[in-house]
Task: inverse folding
């Protein structure tokens, strides 16, 4: 697994909109966070705010934007404006080879899970974290964590993230993969689905009713994708309850049945406190049993040490 170089103050980053269009006000505030707080120089196309139906411009505009961002010799990272829907439409037109030859860091979440999955499968580590429109809403602790992760500092990035509770006790090490449960289910059976054997699977989602979460997890299980997992980290399941069930209960029951070490309450996903995590790089999941000391946690040992996954 190839880890992109750490970002440094003054680095140019390309900002793209590969999925849904965005509202201008939070986007502008996010650009200010990029430049003033993170010390980066955002660069984007004049038509980044394009709208076509429910997409940020048609497929041709968005794939051209992607290719220009990848080819920009000065840019060291690609930051996505937001998620929504549309990134998976671009997958057949994306060639990971240029990013493997000259790695750049990709940052985004939600629908951007599709891009993470394709690049992780090709051998490039990426960062599941806030889009530009979410940056101004991050609490200070999450922003400090993001800055450390982008710069690959040993601390706090290397310390990883604490979860809320153990689902199944144990310890597992492997590449951290995943993101939006919806996208992972929709990618199953395609050439772009992540290879999850031996991996720690990160799951999060927003606005999905409990029966839909059940459907997605059942679909993944029926494809065999969950058969050889090393562990599971459950992130935020925002707005996923209804009058009959809690989304967290549905996901917890399905994960418990997998028989692997698992934790829940990892603070990444669709809430304002969306802490960034590296995808593709080696991580260790620690799920303490009752009576054992320490919090449930993910440790990003491969990322902080600058080493990839064998």
Result:
């Amino acid at each position: 697994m190839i880890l992109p170089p750490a970002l440094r103050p003054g680095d140019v980053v390309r900002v793209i909109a590969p999925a849904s269009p965005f509202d201008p006000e939070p986007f502008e505030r996010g650009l200010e966070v990029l430049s003033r707080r993170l010390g980066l120089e955002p660069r984007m196309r004049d038509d980044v705010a394009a709208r076509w139906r429910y997409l940020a411009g048609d497929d041709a505009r968005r794939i051209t934007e992607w290719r220009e961002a990848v080819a920009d010799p000065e840019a060291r990272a690609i930051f996505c404006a937001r998620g929504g829907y549309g990134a998976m439409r671009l997958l057949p037109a994306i060639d990971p080879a240029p990013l493997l030859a000259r790695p750049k860091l990709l940052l985004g979440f939600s629908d951007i899970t599709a891009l993470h999955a394709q690049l992780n499968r090709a051998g490039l580590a990426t960062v599941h974290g806030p889009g530009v429109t979410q940056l101004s809403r991050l609490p200070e602790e999450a922003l400090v964590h993001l800055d450390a992760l982008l710069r690959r500092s040993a601390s706090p990035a290397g310390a990883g993230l604490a979860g809320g509770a153990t689902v199944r006790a144990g310890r597992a090490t492997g590449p951290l993969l995943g993101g939006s449960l919806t996208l992972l289910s929709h990618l199953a059976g395609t050439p772009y689905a992540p290879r999850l054997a031996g991996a720690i699977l990160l799951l999060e989602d927003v606005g999905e009713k409990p029966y839909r979460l059940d459907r997605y997890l059942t679909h993944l299980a029926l494809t065999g994708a969950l058969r050889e997992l090393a562990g599971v980290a459950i992130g935020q399941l925002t707005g996923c309850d209804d009058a009959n069930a809690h989304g967290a209960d549905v996901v917890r029951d399905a994960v418990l049945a997998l028989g692997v070490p698992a934790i829940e309450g990892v603070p990444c996903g669709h809430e304002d406190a969306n802490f960034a995590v590296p995808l593709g790089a080696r991580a260790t999941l620690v799920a303490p049993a009752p009576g054992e000391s320490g919090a449930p946690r993910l440790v990003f040992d491969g990322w902080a040490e600058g080493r990839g996954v064998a």
